[in-house]
């Protein structure tokens, strides 16, 4: 449904919903409006429908459905966990310099209320390899570190973090770890049992292309009883609102629109079927993720070559996002960077983030099934004009 006169290279921000998924959502909304009480009341037919989606999400993420609840988005999931942590004065919580600003703010707020300290691990950018990530994090862990938050794929820099190694590092130091997997499902193969994090949260409306707004929160069973949602509702003291106390708290935040959640099966089926004609059953999503990765790698290489730049991140640390520092945009003011973004959007009809990392101006591109290499070739031509 994207406008044909705009080159939309920003799937990473909010995704884009296919027409068939949008139609499925509308059908769910119509069913809701035909029988509002029967459809929406949790004690009637809503919870079984949510459980079906929960089963699918658990299967896709290799996690028990008992350990999965639904949230509005990954920021909501991070807030629920960090605001429920039993932090005390003198504790330390660790985030990284590549963390998503909204989630970093949530961590700072929770730490401030508890009298705890936020420690920021400075991850380099450009970066040469995964060891620079783990080394930076390891150097910041102290005996006071209680909890850490690390992105699976960093929003500003598009780096796929070595989360398996980071989780192993955290647990070897006795530290709980949460992975912000906002970009994970649909971009990467996510195996929650293999990753082994204490908590993992992600969006459905990014790379799974589900309608806005929906996401999930996974928590290991031993921590579930202490986690409260950001909205306390009937599930706090009403039986029958979920298979577990964890699910009861999250299943019913009050009157809400469940249609984005209920359309997830259609989204996954659609994406999985895009390349099903030439591969074995069940491999469609993996093929799509590989193709998207190859496209963003080719697009980034094209732009780097055209501008005569070195790669800021190894190709092996990319999914289907890539951030490119532009040397000519260094030491620009915020107003100047906004003007560059405005020109690219209004004059040249591109949609993607233009951002500052420290004092370095950058752009971030994404690749999804609707993108083509010709769009990035046009972008490279436009960038060459702008930087000159």
From TrEMBL:
Gene3D superfamilies: Aspartate Aminotransferase, domain 1, Type I PLP-dependent aspartate aminotransferase-like (Major domain). Coiled coil: none annotated. InterPro entries: Aminotrans_V_dom, PyrdxlP-dep_Trfase, PyrdxlP-dep_Trfase_major, PyrdxlP-dep_Trfase_small. One of its GO terms (molecular function) is isopenicillin-N epimerase activity. The keyword Magnesium does not apply. The keyword Mitochondrion does not apply. Residues 46-235 form the Aminotransferase class V domain. This is Isopenicillin-N epimerase. It comes from Aporhodopirellula rubra. The lineage of its organism: Bacteria, Pseudomonadati, Planctomycetota, Planctomycetia, Pirellulales.
């Amino acid at each position: 449904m994207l406008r044909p006169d705009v080159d939309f290279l920003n799937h990473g921000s909010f995704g884009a919903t296919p027409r068939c998924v949008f139609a499925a959502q509308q059908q769910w909304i119509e069913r809701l409006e035909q029988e509002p009480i029967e459809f929406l009341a949790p004690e009637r037919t809503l919870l079984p429908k949510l459980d079906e989606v929960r089963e699918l999400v658990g299967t896709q993420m290799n996690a028990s459905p008992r350990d999965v609840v639904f949230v509005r988005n990954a920021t909501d999931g991070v807030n629920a966990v960090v605001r429920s942590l039993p932090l005390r004065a003198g504790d330390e919580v660790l985030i990284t310099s590549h963390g998503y600003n909204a989630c970093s703010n949530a961590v700072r707020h929770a730490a401030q209320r508890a009298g705890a300290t936020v420690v920021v691990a400075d991850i380099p950018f450009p970066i040469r390899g995964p060891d620079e990530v783990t080394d930076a994090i390891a150097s910041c862990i102290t005996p006071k570190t209680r909890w850490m938050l690390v992105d699976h794929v960093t929003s500003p820099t598009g780096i796929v973090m070595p989360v398996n190694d980071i989780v192993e590092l955290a647990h070897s130091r006795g530290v709980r770890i949460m992975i912000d997997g906002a970009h994970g499902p649909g971009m990467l193969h996510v195996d929650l049992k293999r990753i082994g994090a204490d908590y993992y949260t992600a969006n459905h409306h990014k790379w799974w292309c589900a309608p806005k707004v929906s996401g999930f929160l996974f928590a290991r069973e031993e921590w579930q009883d202490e986690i409260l949602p950001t909205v306390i509702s009937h599930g706090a003291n009403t039986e029958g609102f979920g298979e577990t106390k964890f699910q009861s708290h999250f299943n019913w935040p009050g009157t809400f629109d469940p249609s984005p959640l209920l359309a997830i099966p259609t989204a996954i089926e659609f994406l999985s079927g895009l390349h099903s004609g030439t591969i074995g059953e069940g491999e469609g999503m993996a093929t799509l993720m590989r193709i998207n990765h190859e496209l963003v790698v080719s697009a980034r290489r094209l732009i780097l070559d055209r501008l005569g730049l070195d790669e800021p991140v190894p190709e092996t640390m990319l999914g289907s996002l890539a951030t490119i520092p532009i040397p000519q945009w260094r030491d620009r003011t915020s107003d100047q960077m906004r003007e560059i973004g405005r020109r690219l959007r209004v004059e040249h009809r591109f949609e993607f983030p233009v951002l500052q990392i420290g004092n370095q101006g950058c752009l971030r591109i994404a690749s999804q099934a609707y993108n083509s290499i010709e769009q990035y070739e046009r972008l490279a031509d436009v960038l060459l004009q702008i930087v000159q």
